[in-house]
Design goal:
The longest helix has 19 residues. Helix content is about 55%, strand content about 10%.
Length: about 210
């Protein structure tokens, strides 16, 4: 594969060490990488930018990742976005997914998790142009869930932790885990961001 045929990742992160290590790792994995030191400079360069997948840190000075995402939506930019969130920052990740991010990865990230997220994002972009995961398909998948599994998914869509969902439904966190595992299995997904994508496609938590 020639250099120009490799998929391009735009890495937006204010932490120089992360820009350095992540871009090195992504290049080894076969991607081209352009790094951007913050959201403001990234948006400034946008008009001249080649299309790729955006790997966007949420916690940045000057302009947060969510603010960058909002601006991308306002400008009608259709590049897939994968957000990097702080560990356990599920509510921010959910906000990013609601705003159209394809996926989120928690820092400190594992190499394979990050690569899988990018792979999914590029794949989803291809499918998106073919109009897959339409509302009807997502609704059909959700129809297989029990009422309790749907309630657990709705809690996740609201950015709640397992414990908070357990409190709101008056059941034990362990029971939430079981419902969550069953719900993921029925939806045919193995991570939260994929489950959220289906939920949002079906119009949950709009």
């Amino acid at each position: 594969m020639s250099e120009s045929d490799k998929p391009l990742v735009h890495l937006v992160d204010d932490d120089e060490a992360i820009r350095h290590s992540a871009s090195f790792m992504l290049r080894l994995a076969g991607y081209r990488v352009q790094t951007h030191k913050d959201g403001v400079s990234f948006l400034d360069d946008l008009p001249r930018m080649e299309t790729g997948c955006i790997l966007l840190d949420v916690q940045m000075p000057k302009m947060s990742g969510l603010a960058v995402q909002k601006e991308l939506n306002a400008r009608g930019v259709d590049m897939p976005v994968v957000v990097l969130t702080g560990h356990g920052d599920v509510s921010v990740a959910v906000q990013a997914m609601k705003a159209g991010a394809m996926n989120f990865v928690e820092k400190p990230y594992e190499k394979q998790v990050l690569l899988n997220a990018l792979e999914d994002a590029f794949e989803e972009q291809k499918n998106r142009s073919m109009g897959s995961l339409q509302k009807a398909d997502a609704e059909k998948r959700l129809a297989h869930l029990t009422p309790r599994e749907t309630e657990v998914l709705e809690g996740l869509v609201d950015g709640l932790t397992n414990k908070a969902i357990a409190n709101s439904l008056d059941i034990s966190p362990r029971t939430v885990e079981i419902h969550r595992a069953n719900m993921m299995e029925k939806l045919g997904v193995d991570n939260l961001s994929s489950a959220l994508r289906i939920a949002f496609a079906a119009g949950l938590g709009g």
